[in-house]
Amino acid sequence: MAQYCNKNIFKALLLAPIALLVILACLFIVMNHEYNLQAILTVLGITFLIYLIYCVLTVPISYAISVILSRKNRLTFFSMIFGSWLIWAIVSMIGYLLFTGALPTPFWKLFTDWFFYCLAMFVGCCYWGILHLLENRERNEITRD
To answer: What are the transmembrane regions (predicted)?
Structure first.
């Protein structure tokens, strides 16, 4: 039997980056001292666009990997963090190629920014926490019946 339900894996993947996006959007508004309606709507629109890109690019890949790992009972906290870092690496390479047209000459310079590792780790922790909350809620509903 699978460790996690496929429906809960999908929901957790969709909900995982929302906390980070809200925090970053609020920090962006506060740090730039832009409190007018147009600036707030622009930041919210860009945040929503980033969320849609996340849903299109990473959710299908992460979902497939998570379902395979769950069937083998290998979907753990550390595999979620490692998967989050792996997806971040793939997306950063694609983004670098799209925005600059080429990869940096020393390729390893692409992965030297510790801040992005922390962001990927935060999203991985959110994924793990949301998945556990959804599974516990489902188990409690089953035991009540």
So the answer is: 12-31, 37-65, 77-99, 114-134
CB 130 within 8 A of CB 140: no
**Any idea where the domains of the chain sit in the sequence?**
6-144
Please state whether the predicted TM-score (pTM) of the whole model is above 0.85: yes
C-alpha triplet 43, 34, 95: angle, nearest 5°? 35
Cβ 83 vs Cβ 124: under 8 Å: yes
Tokens of 95: 């983004």
| Distance between CA atoms of residues 85 and 143, nearest Å | 36
Question: Whose structure tokens read 């925090």?
Answer: 23
Number of residues written out for the chain:
145
Instruction: Decide if 17 contacts 126 (C-beta within 8 A).
Output: yes
User: Which run of H or of E encompasses 46?
Assistant: helix 37-57
